[in-house]
Amino acid sequence: MELFAETWHYLLDADNWSGGGGFVARLLEQLLLTATALVAAMLLGLPLALWLGHVGRGGFLAVNVSNVGRAVPTFALLALLVAADWPGSADFGPYGRAGLATLIALVLFALPPLITNGYVAMREVPKDVLEAADGMGMSEGQRFWRVELPLALPVVASGVRLALVQVWATATIAALVAGPGLGRIITEGFARNDYAQGMAGAVVVALVALVLELAAATLQRAVDPMPQSPSPDRDDALSVRSATVTEAPTGG
Amino acid sequence: MTLLVSAAEPSCYSRFVNEWFCWQYVDDRRGQIIDALLEHVAITVAALLLGVLLAFPLALLARRHTRLESMVLGFSAGLYTIPSLALLPLLVPFTGLAPATVVIGLGLYALTILVRALLDGLRSVPDDVREAARGLGYGRARMLTRIELPLALPVAMAGLRVAAVSTIALTTVGTLVSYGGLGDLISHGVQRDFRAELMTAAVLCVVLALLLDVVLVVVQRVLTPWTQGAR
């Protein structure tokens, strides 16, 4: 268990945190990647999913896109994108080497949970509430913005949370194909048989993942219009009902 | 041998052609591909078995004790947020660079899905069915094996399918400790810019996931014949 002591020393050494390949630079790189990909996927996926749920069409597609996403290994897709002529492994602004290929893969893997949850969220708004809204003389637009969307928000938010976890995991795997991000510290450590470095990288990646997840859970609770609701699928950590269907690591 | 072939006519996987789909490659490296495929299947099956074996007692215990249940669910929610590429290094000090590292890591991921699925499944058993069984004189053990588990099976199997498909995909990450099955071919393909190898391994991964899913669906049909009319 000498390795634990070495890992600890590696983490305490300030030199490992500064500089081009240090923790800080890599962490910022991966956070930037994650944020960009998540925002892009939300802009692409959420309007589509909410609209499909609103009109009640394309349910088969919306639900099964998650199952397909789970079957495709993130590593394989990243590898294919990097080996292709476009987007390839070229530098992409602040996103670093193979930045564009990584971003595309991240967006693709963030979409399934967003679309599935967005669709399910809209469909789960109780029918009698919709009828009441119609009865009050709300227009379709009013009904969508004032009734459906607020009630759907917690489940939509849980989709965003799943997508965030997925994007963070995939961004880490990008390092296996020499992409940017914190995963590089892990893969470099393993490539040089410096397992303390590999472990240290893993510790940082795991800790940041937990912090992001906690932040997302807090955010999710904040957008719930009925925070005291005892309904099980409106709760976060014990989202048991949808858990087995949606809360599974997709191939990353 | 490769040299001879390229002298006559460059094969579709030579450096200069580097095609994505190349049957010649599959033909020439059949042994290597089959080895990787078998390793992939072995790691996946071992991880799933480990997950199932651990999930059963955990789910049964968690069902009896509410405190334990929230602990188990909280733990699995936390574990599932940790990226696979970070989980494997954290296991290396205990298991070294061995297939066991990958099997245990993926088994833990499968476990998080399976425990929830089993708990959901057991919860889906109607109370009046339990009461009827009790009225017929079923004891705890017989109730579990003859009534509750069979009725929980459809939900539990849905969880197993999710776990199986994602475990096939995650096995590729095992290449970090050089036991990634088809992932090793992908990794090598990236390093050498060898497109045929990369594409072949990627396609095989997806095919493998679909096949395993079909197998599990068939198993479920056989085990739960009563669900067929209901759909």
Automatic annotation (TrEMBL), chain A:
InterPro entries: ABC_transp_perm/SBD, MetI-like, MetI-like_sf. PROSITE patterns: ABC_TM1. Residues 224-252 are annotated as: Disordered. The chain crosses the membrane at residues 31-53, 60-83, 95-115, 151-178, 198-219. It comes from the Bacteria. Residues 27-216 form the ABC transmembrane type-1 domain. SUPFAM superfamilies: MetI-like. It is a multi-pass membrane protein. It is found in: Cell membrane; Membrane. Keywords: Membrane, Transmembrane, Transmembrane helix, Transport. Residues 241-252 have a biased composition (Polar residues). Belongs to the binding-protein-dependent transport system permease family. This is ABC transporter permease. It comes from Nocardioides astragali.
UniProtKB/TrEMBL annotation, chain B:
PANTHER family: GLYCINE BETAINE/L-PROLINE TRANSPORT SYSTEM PERMEASE PROTEIN PROW, OSMOPROTECTANT IMPORT PERMEASE PROTEIN OSMW. SUPFAM superfamilies: MetI-like (SSF161098). This is ABC transporter permease. It is a multi-pass membrane protein. It comes from Nocardioides astragali. The keyword Transport applies. It is found in: Cell membrane; Membrane. Residues 37-216 form the ABC transmembrane type-1 domain. The chain crosses the membrane at residues 41-60, 72-91, 97-119, 151-178, 198-219. Belongs to the binding-protein-dependent transport system permease family. Keywords: Membrane, Transmembrane, Transmembrane helix, Transport.
